[in-house]
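Aim 2, interim progress: modelling of the (2R)-2,3-dihydroxypropanoic acid-bound target.
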Amino acid sequence: MSEKPVVLVTRKLPEAVEARLARDYQAVLNAEDRLYTTEELLALADGADGILPCHTEHLSAEAIARLPDRVRVVANMSVGVDHVDLGAAKSRGIVVTNTPDVLSDATAEIAMLLLLGAARRASEGERLVRAREWRDWSPAFMVGTQVTGKRLGIVGMGRVGRVTARRGRGFDMTIHYHNRRPLPAEQEDGAVYHETLEDLLPQCDFLSLHCPATPDSRNLLNAERIALLPDGAIVVNTARGAIVDDEALIAALGSGKLAAAGLDVFNNEPDIHPGYRDLANTFLLPHIGSATRETRDAMGFRACDNLDAFFAGHEPGDRVA
Ligand code: DGY
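Predicted structure of the complex, ligand included:
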């Protein structure tokens, strides 16, 4: 029997996923869950046939150019692949896959948590209680924005966007969206399509971002576009920080143009723009959209499925390059 392929696994994965990897591959695991530098990653990749990274490993064009020839597949445990230079991988003939679908429910849960938390001032309230500074109740105390019945605008009506729309309907929200193309009617489920972002933004009491980070979507939410949102709108981001111009968003939150923002993703994580921390009207989470036990298992198994297909000589289901 030929040797099992060597797979470099860059982060500590759920037990059941590591057990499957150890059974089917010569898996190089990261028991201590250390965040590797690019140099460490490249050194560990020496002798590997494939890599199973997360979004924390930045596989730039330079890094991909230095990967050993033996590495033929990068099976990401993430739906987002902005940490991998897909063009560089393609030109070296390295197959790249991701893990779509399996994290849509978990991420939409966090989108709703952010939406509700930002609207109802959850961070401020929680801090007050923990700091023993809650002294009184009055009709004017901690008044926020009601969610029920409002207009929810969704940018990127892919899998996560569509689940978020469904959850929004549970709060009697009217769904508006912008996407490259309108969805078929059965998927649209009454949502109103806007061909341009500029058409969508004035219709949004709440705006939730669900598009991938690409060179085209960098700083998509900039000062000009924020100005098109209704005064007092609320912005939610569970996609990627790169979609937002931080300075513009922070200025709009500071001026009161926007009532609040709920953010799970940031530019330059975890060293986020300090302006977000200084604002009372931000509800901030540390990139935990897909962080449930069920979803982590499912993401890991999906990455394994892609590896299995590749090493069996088949086209992996989730090939992105
Ligand atoms: C994803 O899958 O893209 C999540 O952001 C976690 O990496």
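DSSP finds 13 helices and twelve strands in the chain. The chain has a mean pLDDT of 98.
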